[in-house]
Design brief:
With 135 residues, the chain is mainly α. It has one domain. The chain contains five helices and no strands. Helix 2 crosses helix 3. The longest helix has 31 residues. It is globular and about 45 Å long. The protein starts with a helix and ends with a helix.
Length: 135
């Protein structure tokens, strides 16, 4: 596969993951506002498809995800939260554990972390799009 084909494939996968992640995040926020603090299994899976590989990357563990480029997304988050990176990194890992256990409702700090992840994933999609455009 050519370099352009690889970039296009990555963009398609990242865009699909971003779309699903954003959809789940929007539904979770709406449920939270409606005093329904739970996360459905479907929404949880969409979140974990992004958060789990990101958490593994942050912990320097090998991720088997093909849905996103977790290394680039982690680097974007690291750049945006450079000053508080050690504490921020722990919050992201804790969020991943919380989502995996699915036994406690998400609070406003969790939702902010999820927003940050969505923004970083969006930035990665934009980076890939720009690289494709310049080919």
């Amino acid at each position: 596969m050519s370099n352009l084909g690889v970039l296009t494939s990555r963009l398609n996968k990242n865009t699909k993951s971003l779309r699903e992640f954003d959809e789940a995040l929007r539904l979770i926020k709406n449920r939270r506002l409606a005093t329904e603090p739970y996360v459905s299994d479907e929404d949880l899976e969409k979140m974990l498809n992004v958060v789990s590989p990101l958490s593994e990357e942050i912990k320097n563990s090998l991720s088997v995800s093909t849905a996103i480029n977790e290394k680039n997304v982690a680097e974007i988050l690291r750049e945006r939260h450079e000053r508080e990176w050690p504490a921020y990194k722990e919050k992201l890992i804790s969020l991943s554990l919380k989502l995996r256990s699915n036994n406690s409702p998400l609070d406003k700090h969790d939702l902010q972390l999820l927003e940050d992840i969505a923004d970083a994933l969006d930035a990665e999609c934009e980076n890939l799009f720009q690289r494709i455009r310049t080919r």
